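Re-run requested by the PI after the first attempt was lost when the workstation crashed. Everything re-entered from the original request form. Ligand of interest: biotin.
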Amino acid sequence: MASFDLARIVAETIVQRVAYHDVLDSTNDFALAELATGEVTQPLLVLADRQRAGRGRAQNRWWSAPGSLTFSLVVDGNAWNLSARSWPRISLGTSLAVSEVLRFIVPNEEVQLKWPNDVYLRSKKVCGILVESSPRHPNLLVIGVGMNVNNSLSEAPSELRETAISLVEAFGYPLDRTDLLVRVLRQLSDRLRQLSTREWPLSDCWSEHCMLQGRTVCVVSGARRHVGVCQGIDDEGALLLQSDAGLQKLFAGVVARIL
Ligand code: BTN
């Protein structure tokens, strides 16, 4: 039996079909394999109780212990009027949606965003996002979300215990993962809809909670390192860095250090 209420997910969100598995290597890999086989009813939600080989950005592993929330939502970018150019904004919009749900659940907690798309609670990472697509269907987006929910970090690799946090350990009580997932999917679909209209100020909403704001950071982007003071993000989703060379806009990269 699924450890989620799948009927409720379909009834209360934009999801048309759920592919649920107790264990998968990676929900993103499963979603991409589905896309490779042909037509896919979407929005499709690929949901796993746990992953054996979850993937993060920059070839990192995503540790997914039992109790975590790991899913991939497949949406048609064309239906949302979102082109490939909008991808940085989709990642940012997803992290923003997750942070808004957490802020709603625990209004007294400080929930922050770290460019490009991590969500932090009490200065530790609680959620990561990986947006991908398949060459065969470049318009279909696979939005992968991993959240530490009811999983204990005590069994995590030692480097993660220093830098990551789970909701159950922060709050002291477990959360209903279906409830959390429904809230995230609803907020995410609202934000995706707003992203397609240029009227919504993504940069203002995002920069307000940006943990790098005003701080000197070192960002590695390809073979280059950029050091500068973070000025938030712009409406395209680029990180704004004030460096000796002037204001730089970075569309991709990894924040290597906060100085
Ligand atoms: C990161 O922080 O580097 C991104 C982590 C993304 C993890 C999620 S878990 C669900 C989906 N399936 C994967 O293999 N990865 C994403």
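Saved to the shared folder this time. The CA atoms of residues 74 and 142 lie 5 Å apart.
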